[in-house]
Amino acid sequence: MSTRLSSAPRTDAAHQSSLMGEPAAARPSEIQPGEAPDARQDPQAEQDIVIRVRDLVVGFGDKTVLDHLDLDVYRGEVLGVIGASGSGKSVLTRAIIGLIPKRQGTIEIFGENVDTLSVEARRAMERRWGIMFQHGALFSSLTVKQNVQVPMREYLDLSDELLEELASLKIAMAGLPADAADKYPSELSGGMTKRAALARALALDPDVLFLDEPTSGLDPIGAGEFDELIKTLQDTLKLTVFMITHDLDSLHAVCDRVAALARGKVIAAGTIAAMLTTEDPWLRAYFQGPRARAAIARPAADDPSTAG
Ligand SMILES: Nc1ncnc2c1ncn2[C@@H]1O[C@H](COP(=O)(O)OP(=O)(O)OP(=O)(O)O)[C@@H](O)[C@H]1O
């Protein structure tokens, strides 16, 4: 990668036509008045929405975590989801993929309202996304290869030979050596665990990848390599990526847009450049604090113009 700064979301006509046939939609008002601008004026943003969340309310007991939240995820983009610890990033992800019930609101994925799907349609939808949980969530009693084959066995009817071949392919795509395939999760380093979880998330050739803090716990070099891997996969496979992260370097290296959660809502969504103009105190501290400035100043490792 030659640049670590964000760019506008990409479009891909062939990929678009293979996804939902919904016409481009106008951007919703996901930004509160007076807060950071988003890409509403950007014609590129008038493209298909892969995930559309409206008026989402999710809570536990007396506690409301997501409070009438709106969010759009655009086809082909890497959306970084940020917010203070406990702001509801994981809850939002789990609500979108149906692991947590919502109290109110609508969630449309690939143009379909998830509340109105038949069991078969729901399964077909689930086949189109891959999820990498924060701590991998690998089955400890299964090898890496067997973990990768779990979704394949659940959703596809393949011969053992093909399962073997496909699992090896996904393991290689995630950047693991071939001999990692027969290792158990307990035998993997943190970075290898992340890659194994990524291989499993890629098992069904997803259109959308959900990543929950993919670089947490990795050393800076490992995190940088993982960022590059995500970006390369996203480019080559034309993935839409929904990525929760606290990692400022990842935001700069990988994300096309950022959505910031606070007070149960998306308080700002747009490019990092747009985020830098925000007046919101938390966003200002996040994007203009010392760590943020260091992330912006850090040269991309492979940028010849910055090589010393
Ligand atoms: N199953 C649950 N039952 C009750 N409360 C929950 C449950 N899951 C999440 N919460 C609460 O919802 C809030 C948001 O949690 P969530 O894990 O989404 O935060 P987060 O933004 O992902 O935080 P972090 O950055 O620390 O991972 C927290 O207050 C958490 O305690």
TrEMBL record:
Matches recorded under SUPFAM superfamilies: P-loop containing nucleoside triphosphate hydrolases
Keyword Repeat: no
Domain of life: Bacteria
Protein's name in the database: Phospholipid/cholesterol/gamma-HCH transport system ATP-binding protein
Residue stretches making up the ABC transporter domain: 51-288
Positions of the UniProt region annotated as Disordered: 1-45
Keywords recorded for this protein, A-Z: ATP-binding, Nucleotide-binding, Transport
SMART domains reported in the protein's UniProt record: AAA
Alphabetized InterPro entries for the sequence: AAA+_ATPase, ABC_transporter-like_ATP-bd, P-loop_NTPase
GO molecular function: ATP binding; ATP hydrolysis activity
Composition bias type Polar residues, residue spans: 1-19
